Amino acid sequence: MKQLGKISIVLVLVLSLTGCFDKNSPNYQYMPNMYESVGYETYEAVDNGLFPNGTEAMLPADNTIPRGYMPYKFENTLEDKELARLEPSPLDSLQREENLAKGKELYDIYCAICHGPKGKGQGTLVKREKILGVPSYDDVARNITVGSTYHTVYYGLNSMGSYAAQMANEEEMWQVSEYVMKLKEDLTK
Question: In angstroms, how far is CA 115 from the centroid of its own chain?
Fold first, then answer.
C-alpha cells in the first residue's frame, strides 16, 4: 500500500508539471531579452540618442569614383565607338607574349563559346543554333581594331552584352582585345 501511495504521488506530480508545460512558450524566462529581441528596421530612427533622425545609406560625394577604378573615357554611343577605334592598347609591348597568353585564357573562357576558338564565329552555341549571326573576325565589313574591341567588351554590342563585370580589371579586357586582334591577323593570312 505504501508503494502505491508513493507511485500515485509521483504520478500526480509528473502530470501536474507536464500539464502546464508548453513547448512553444516556456513558463519562466530568465533573460527575456534573449528570447524576445527588439526588431529594428534598417535605417530607422532609434531613441538611444545616437541617431535621432535615423541612419541612412550614405551616398558617395559627387564626382567621386571607387578606389582602384578608373572610368572608361568613351561613352556607349556610336560616335564614341568610332573614337575608341583609334585608341591604342596601353599594355606593355615588351610583355606581348604574356598578354596574349592571358588573353587566350580569358578568350577561351568567355568568348570562344560564341565566337569560336579561331574567331570564325563558329562557337559551340552557334553550331547548336542557340545564337545566330556571330560574324568572323576576318569579315572585311567589321573593320575591328584593338580599341573598338575593347569598347565592345566594355559595353557590349547588339545581342552581345558587356563583359566588363566578368573581367577583373581593364588590363584583362585589353589582353582579350589584343588576343582578338591576333586571331584576326591569323585569319587574314
Answer: 23
